[in-house]
Amino acid sequence: xxxxxxxxxxxxxxxxxxxxxxxxxxxxxxxxxxxxxxxxxxxxxxxxxxxxxxxxxxxxxxxxxxxxxxxxxxxxxxxxxxxxxxxxxxxxxxxxxxxxxxxxxxxxxxxxxxxxxxxxxxxxxxxxxxxxxxxxxxxxxxxxxxxxxxxxxxxxxxxxxxxxxxxxxxxxxxxxxxxxxxxxxxxxxxxxxxxxxxxxxxxxxxxxxxxxxxxxxxxxxxxxxxxxxxxxxxxxxxxxxxxxxxxxxxxxxxxxxxxxxxxxxxxxxxxxxxxxxxxxxxxxxxxxxxxxxxxxxxxxxxxxxxxxxxxxxxxxxxxxxxxxxxxxxxxxxxxxxxxxxxxxxxxxxxxxxxxxxxxxxxxxxxxxxxxxxxxxxxxxxxxxxxxxxxxxxxxxxxxxxxxxxxxxxxxxxxxxxxxxxxxxxxxxxxxxxxxxxxxxxxxxxxxxxxxxxxx
Length: 455
Prior knowledge:
CATH class of the largest domain: Alpha Beta
CATH superfamily of the largest domain: Glutamine synthetase/guanido kinase, catalytic domain
Number of domains: 2
Strand content: 15-25%
Order of helices and strands: HEEHEEEHEEHEEHEEHHEEEHHHHH
Radius of gyration: 22 Å
């Protein structure tokens, strides 16, 4: 556990109370992000939420924060297991994270923080992992601004195939930067932009990509915690609107062989006076930007579990797919893991390692922790890469598997306390072990295809 949470005050939920009084909201979803970047929680009658839950909180079985993609209760986690009796955590609503949903009638969603039996915030919860890194920035008089840029694949739903084994993308040709879209796709874009805009969070841009059915959505720079919260709402909304349109929204990192979907993180830092720390002078990167790049390249190789959490994540790192394969950096170079983007005061860093399946809280936490390590140790990066960084034998390679990422975390030269805290490192290492165990013993369609073909 960690520091005590701030208790809500009577004035914090005034806007929500007004919506409830006017009948504009009759249901409140109290939500917590789980390890797999899903919203978990309860649908609560709005009057009951206002009367009891807003200030008294609710509860949830702690295993929700210690499970795998199949939502199985698993042993080995200190937070929740058979040995602990699978007890509860309390859910304290965050008054700064209240949203009226545009894709669900008369429904609001309120993010909550998980509270342990000692009254402290649960340190392994994704929101708290990110908040700890933001607190470390604040202690140095620094604030972060981030923008997320994510891709996903839209396909036609097939009611006869509930496991989505043979999805047909909504378009089957390269529509990168195209403005002539199929009618169904145009309607989906219109609905998505309208719903997000009504929440006070309009998208910055929407575009189709080069792979079949692939779409990219870019969001404006802002507060990291709010950006992560809203990213989960975006995914929830995209899936809901897709289902209503007879589509499936696929947020896998590698949705098909040879195709990768990313979730790039654009990061800038400001000092106490809101002056950009990465602003260049006469074309020269400042020390802060250079040390941040050095920290990212030194530290991110050990934090893959946070930004690439599944076996599928590592199938995206393929040369020629605009996904990085080496820990390199360069100016406006999309073959590198870290891309320096913009000019002058707008100079910022782009972390191109996370895929569409990333948990934004964890990926942002890993990015900020790496930047802080670089600033603290004045890390010097190698020379910027010019040309293709794919398969450079002298550049450190991106881990080729989840097992390699797990081994890299254990071999991290910096202590877990400096980066994540020991309990967080142990929690997510345990999760990776369970993920690997499933894949180690599961017979896949590829096994059957290749096995039968050679029998």
